[in-house]
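Students often ask why we bother encoding 3D structure as a string. The short answer is that it lets us treat folding as translation between two languages. Here is a chain of 127 residues written in the first language.
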Amino acid sequence: MVSARSTLYTLTNKRVVMRIGIVLTLTFNLPFKRIAGASLKTQATGTGDIALALHPEDRIGWAHLWPHQRAWYVTQPQPTLRCVPNSVQVGEQLLALWRAERAGQSLHLGDAPVGETARAPNQGMLA
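And here it is in the second language, the structure alphabet:
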């Protein structure tokens, strides 16, 4: 509960920023250019976890991310946005912004399409 209250995830048109930590606050700046892929795991309540796969040369220590890392990915930790409300819509926004950044377009958060396609639980979002 304390971890949830002290966590802030920010999605911009260029990056994902994770501010995590209870005693010591850490901020991770994850530019879309450094994100290789993502996956979405939804819950029945509409919340979900969005795991971000980084390029192999970009590494964040497993212990630094705890508990905001994807389970069982110890050697190649994946930062994970935990218990995100409306996770399917957030995932679609993330996908649209990620694609726009990869294409070199300037897409703003309000321009990102929401509700294009529904994704099944545990299905990968980014290619």
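Translate back mentally: Residues 33-111 form one domain. Keep this in mind for the problem set.
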